[in-house]
Amino acid sequence: MMNHTLKFVFLCSAVLAAASCSKSIAEQMKLAENVQIDCTPEVLALVGDKIPVDLTVTYPKGYFHPKAILELTPVLVYGDGSQSARTLTYQGEKVLDNYKVVSSNGGTVREHFDFEYDEGVEQAYLELRGVASYNGKSIPIPAVKVADGTILTQMLARPTGSFSFKKDDYQSVIHEQTEGQVMYDYNSATIKGSELRSSSIKELQAALNEIASNPRYTVKGTRVVAYASPEGGQELNAKLSDQRAASAQKAWSKVTGETAPDDLEVRSIGQDWEGFKEAIEKSDIEDKELILRVLSMYSDPAVRENEIKNMSQVYTEINKNVFPELRRARFITEVDYQNFSDEELVELSRQAIDVLDEEGLLRVASIADTPKRKAELYEQAVERFGSDRARFNLAVLALEDERPDAAARYLDSVKEQDADVLNAKGVVELQRGDLDAAAGQFRKAATPEAKANLGLVDLLKGNYDAAARQLKGTEGLNGAVASILAGRLDEAEAAITCHCAQAEYLRAIIAARKGDAAGVRTHLDAVREKDQRLYDQSRRDVEFAKYR
């Protein structure tokens, strides 16, 4: 709070002296020396979108004549410009008007007013200009300075909001499985020659030939898995499954054309209840829900088999159409496919873009070196695949470029309005300047980014304590700015983890507020090395007024 002994308001009494010589002007001046003015804050500061001022004027007893009027106009002066707040008008107790009354016995008046942000206000000063009137006579009062400068630290926050691109699901390595199977007769472990020539085995052989001829494939594992249908008892079927596994292992070289590898995995499952359940679920059997209920109610294989056999009509259909498909052995090869590298994707996007699927387009767009190229590739993904993620990412590009209206159009076209879209719509409103609408979207989104954006809204509104709480632990420097303005300097210091120019600037402010002159010099020197423009700004910043 800045405390001034008011040197100019005595002229209110000087007007009276012009009308009455009962007291000399010198005596009036002496009396006026006890008039006190307090300005809070001592150094003005941007809070939200305003520069607020609280003014307190205390008049001594015998100062304010009962028939006098005093008009005071607060004026913020900066460069070639200025702003005037509303004129503050006071009257003596015998004036027949509706202004604030100041008693001749003295009194205190308190006023609040705001100025708008304008370029150059960081080097502004606040002065009071006035006119004293009595009995039709008026005397202009020389202006008196009551506050210096405007702190603009809030403007160091990044006001454009937090948002991220939708990620692609492009797989650099694709894990694949190829397989074929042979079927067995009831209660048999013998593989018939016709099974080795079946379409299933032929498809497996064709796939294995492709794998062998394509260097992008790497075989990761091979296995044989044998089963028995769940009929005839668990012990019998376990042995039968083992025998089928052994016969399938022997048939491996006939199936694949290669000797069985040393690490060939051979498994015998026994009764294939999982396969049975899957087959029933896919079937059109009339009582399939009842069968599935039996499977869920009983885990004992014997009980399951008995309960199903009791459904005589259904069991006949199962025995004919389901069980035969479960008497089998599978030949499985696990492979990894090395997908296109980033470099290959870039080249394909230039020479043969039609080869790329949606995920490939999204990936190559994410690594494109210019926003223009990113946009072109995302537009391709929208045109060819109707990609919602591409539409969203086009909106992100617009938000990065601070084109909220363009971003809004893309976001409205996204079919699935998920939390990320709600957050981005909040950023649209943020960039348009509608903080309340933005906050509403952020609350609905409820994502970590939306939480940080709610903190930013509080910061831009001047609610620094709330902003510091919301932004604690979030990425970026907005949390540090909020903590500085909330007076939590240690929290602010802990929140700054990088050594970019803006981070060093904030460290310099923290040092200045702590009275650490050496720290101010150290961090501003670092700013100068990294960003001369920002360093030049520090020469005008009243945060450092004491350290120049």
Task: Characterise this structure.
The chain is an alpha+beta fold and 548 residues long. It has 4 domains: 2-151, Immunoglobulin-like; 173-338, 2-Layer Sandwich (60s Ribosomal Protein L30, Chain: A), CATH 3.30.1330.60; 341-477, Tetratricopeptide repeat domain (Serine Threonine Protein Phosphatase 5, Tetratricopeptide repeat, Alpha Horseshoe), CATH 1.25.40.10; 498-548. Helix content is 46%, strand content 22%. It has 25 helices and 15 strands. The strands form 3 sheets. Strands 3, 5, 6, 7, 8, 10 and 11 form a 7-stranded mixed beta sheet that branches. Strands 1-2-4-9 form a 4-stranded antiparallel beta sheet, with no helix packed on it. Strand 5 (69-78) and strand 6 form a beta hairpin. The longest helix is centred in the middle third of the chain and has 17 residues, at 234-250. The radius of gyration is 41 Å and the shape is elongated. Mean pLDDT is 90; it is low at 5-11 and 18-32.
- Average pLDDT confidence is 90
Oligomeric state of the chains? single chain
What's the CATH H-level superfamily name of the largest domain? OmpA-like domain
CATH architecture of the largest domain: 2-Layer Sandwich
End-to-end CA span: 22 Å
Largest sheet: 7 strands, mixed
The CATH class of the largest domain is: Alpha Beta
Count of individual helical segments: 25
| Count of the domains | 4
Shape: elongated
Beta strands, count = 15
Q: Which regions contain 5 or more consecutive residues with pLDDT less than 50?
A: 5-11, 18-32
Task: Give the class from helix and strand content and strand pairing.
Answer: alpha+beta
CATH topology of the largest domain: 60s Ribosomal Protein L30, Chain: A
Strand content: 15-25%
Structural Rg: 41 Å
